Amino acid sequence: MPLALLALAIGAFGIGTTEFVIMGVLPEVAGEFGVSIPTAGRLVSGYALGVVFGAPLLTVLGTKVSRKKMLMFLMGLFVLGNALSACAPTFGAMLAGRVIASLAHGAFFGIGSVVAADLVAPQKKASAISLMFTGLTVANIVGVPLGTYVGQAAGWRVTFTAVAALGIAGFLGVAKLVPELGRPESGTIRSEFAAFRNVQVWIAMAMTVLGFGGVFAAITYITPMTTEVAGYSAGAVTWLLVLFGAGMFLGNLVGGRFADRALMPMLFTALGALSLALLLFTATAQHKVLAALTVTLIGALGFATVPPLQKWVLDHASAAPTLASAANIGAFNLGNALSAWLGGVVISAGLGYTAPSWVGALLAGSALLLSFLAAFLDRRTRRSGRVVAASTPAEQLPAPVRH
């Protein structure tokens, strides 16, 4: 695989670390600024909303420059946001830093997916995309636990300073290793939006919202679920999140490899198994060992859907893939926000800490139904294309080019 994928993975590692590490140092941040934990939680929701809106906005603004220059700009924005967070004098400044950093998130993964796919042969596109996302999954195994430890031991400002340094490494890696691939082929904002005329792009984004939403419906409430139901100590939750990250890492690699061979069967399998795992989590959450195994499995199955879904969007928006790809990244965060809210609703209704897993199973099951619809529409489109080609008289076909 090209070394440019390493540069993209480094950027993804930094982005993944800053997205999730805030959860580990939230009490320290709240204490320093003198705000409540729920108020400090706006640093999480503000980041998610920044991704949703920043992904299409910055991708559209970047249609006039090369993808390499846009990736460098996004990493610069990421460094600026985390540096502001590291030295923020007030909570409002900290929130502004989080939002600035989040604006780079969706566009980086969206444009990065297109670049990664362009760097390899057609039969290896999903694997290339998964290698870039490996940086995000490794962040959950290494970056987030390490950043949390550093934040608790040396202060959360040191954590965000280190994350900004990761962004500088990502910037230099993109500058040195990613080739100049030219501007996006479409070249205009209108042609980028034209990709959304394809219903398959919308179905893919809906699958992303529901499928990944299913994962985070349960994982958002992993602390009360595992401490109050399974009997884990609060300190053990960090290691459960490491297991979740390890599952994400493995699922991402497997999803990329098998999506190159059989994309839709891979998606059917991952979404079906994810629905089942989330359903079982309501029972396995009662036992420590089974709960740990299920958390790992949910991480693996959830991220096994990422490469095939991202490739499905690229395939069906091939004429103008950049905006559609970035919008699909925004859909991941929309799914996170939606599922976290739904999970909170069922807990507040008195249904217990395992209730979000039921919600997650329903969301993932809905994504599975949509995948069947997507496959049906794709087969029908291909069949119609073959029928049209077969019924076209020979004299209407273009004359062969003579050399």
From TrEMBL:
The protein here is known as MFS transporter
Query: Where does it localize?
Result: Cell membrane
Recorded hits in PROSITE patterns, A to Z, give: MFS
What is the recorded membrane topology of this protein? Multi-pass membrane protein
The transmembrane segments are 44-63, 70-93, 99-121, 128-150, 156-178, 199-223, 229-250, 262-283, 289-309, 330-351, 357-377
Indicate the principal place this protein occupies in or around the cell: membrane
Superkingdom per UniProt: Bacteria
Q: Please provide, in alphabetical order, the Gene Ontology terms of the cellular component aspect for this entry.
A: plasma membrane
Residue ranges annotated for the Major facilitator superfamily (MFS) profile domain, each copy included: 4-382
UniProt keywords, alphabetically: Cell membrane, Membrane, Transmembrane, Transmembrane helix
Write down the InterPro entries for this protein, in alphabetical order.
MFS (IPR011701), MFS_dom (IPR020846), MFS_Efflux_Transporters (IPR050189), MFS_trans_sf (IPR036259)
GO MF annotations, alphabetized: transmembrane transporter activity
